[in-house]
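Predict structure. Chain length: 722.
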Amino acid sequence: MNHRNHPNSLSPFRITMVLFFILSSPIGADNSMSFPQEKPAHTNHLIHETSPYLLQHAHNPVDWHPWGKEALERAKNEDKPIFLSIGYAACHWCHVMEKESFENQSIAKILNENFIPIKVDREERPDLDEIYMTATQLLTGSGGWPMSVWLTPDLQPFYAGTYYPPEDRWGRPGFGRVLTSLAEAFHQNRDKIERSAREITHSITHALTVSGASDTLDPALVAETIDMMTGRFDPRFGGFGGAPKFPHSMDLMLLLREFRRSHSQELLHQITFSLDRMACGGMYDQIAGGFHRYSVDDRWLIPHFEKMLYDNALLARTYLEAFQVTSEKRYAQTGREILDYVIREMQSPEGGYYSSTDADSEGEEGRYFVWSQEEILSVLGKDTGTIVCEYYDVQPGGNFEHSGKSVLSVPRDPVEVARQLSLDPEQLETLIREAKTTLRQARKKRVPPALDDKILTDWNGLMISAMAFGGFVLAEPRYIESASKAAASLITHQWDGRRLLHTRRGERSHLEGMLSDYANLVMGLIDLYQATLNPRWLEDAIRINQASIEKFYNPGDGGFFNTCASKDDLLLRSRSAQDGATPSGNSIAVHNLLRLGSLTGDVDLISMAEKTLLSHTAHLRGSGAAFPQMVLGLDLFLQGVHQIVFVLPDGTERNPFLERIKTQFLPNVVWLGDTAAERSLSSILEGKKTLENQPTAYVCQGERCLPPVTQAEDLMKNLSGL
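Prediction complete.
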């Protein structure tokens, strides 16, 4: 199940004449994308959309509209409430509700006659998702997808829930009964409905806007947040919290930075034990690499099987940072396998990265990923197959939904397994590596999960960042090439020199970009510049960052709006910085401002970062665990960003310093070269020259620099105390 819980939920509203039912907790996650093969009986207004999720609903008997001027004006002109359904392509329960209710003729009739039905892909419109998810959480105390929200014609929510069965079932009200009751209530109790809607809207505005900026940045907020996170550590299975269990990448990144300072062995244990259990569990695709969305149990064994681009971007970086901190090759290997999976299965020929793959195939959740003992023996032969079954704990009865099939995991130390099987550990490692390749080829013959092939700018920014970082840390040119290709594709197709577009599918790019699009792409470009020292990427990062300031920055109170002022189809303009499955645009913007300010010498950018942090400090106090990326930004500001300036003699082909720093964990250090292009972009290069015509490195913070060095060992000494 896909849960979404609001850490600061207000008491749920009670709408007296409407709340006949107990709204239940959220459900949501995925299903395969299938399109009619015969001429459909119905075609609605979604037929011209690009989102695979919306196109799935284009032939429902429900008269769906996309969110837009036509539908919103129709609601006002006909004075009808809006039924807003928000989901996404990899959402299992979204598709269950489609089959049960949206393909149901009688339910469609009620919807079409009494409401303006609007269908939204939350990945295309995260701005709408944020607003109405907040409403759902305020009304019910929880949230999830599919999200079902009823709005007045002026877009104010008055009722909300998640999945509804077609008839009363499992203690949930039937969808047809909900629709009929709400239609009657809207017309018979209009004044009370609108009064309640105004109250809810007021609370949403309070939750998603910023007020009362602090005067100082308190380092205790970082320590307080770390204490919250470590207090939720699961000592038995690793990770934080209970089932359903999510990977919490941003939390782990913050803990890695704290370990760098404290050298706490208990903290290191929490980090490494969590990373090890996740990578050995069923949430990790043991055959092809890449992580599924989350674990339904607390042991990391049975996943919700969809794979999301953003999860794998964040987790790849987390494992690679853990490799830098610990020098443990297993973390480098996990990071490498994630990135290889993304290039192999999630990168388009033009370069952009696809959004997700479904949990279901052939109508069954997990069917593509699970194995019976007989299948493994058939593919690998008895001898090798028996060893592989022992390694991946594949038992005759299986472990997945009484199917006789198993989700593969590695519950025991491979050294112990090798000893039990009378094999050398190296022998077992080679056998498993070869078996994985064979099993992956065999698995390709199955019907694969559906692919959501839209190219989202914000999620691509996250993966460009991870891919570039992986290329640098692992010295793998193919990752640099992948990130460069993706960045070039986005700048060609989704950036026109003035603005970014949020999504592309096929030849069509559309939807005005949001703060997260700008912020995440800028982050990716900065990391690509760090990996390559190609000034093209720094120049693009500076240009797009400046556009984000012009479109989203609030010079009065500080911080950024999440949408541009020209968007006139929203109930409100959010300034929330809460991090969810992905980091918020405000959180990433803080990092970008600090890093670009340090790279270019532009102190105004650093001042904007400080002002943004001050504007959100009140929200961090007592709730920092809900803002892990913002706390990472606060930590970066408090630690201070240092620069390394590399000055190389003319004709030097290789930077001798980069080889030494690639495996060092330097989260508060940026570096830049000294080409003519870079000198035109950065004031901190002024006066920097080679010593004795040798490659030279300067370590600086602002205008203060340590004496320049020409030996990599001396550079490492200068960096050791940062």
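Summary: Residues 190-208 form the longest helix (19 residues).
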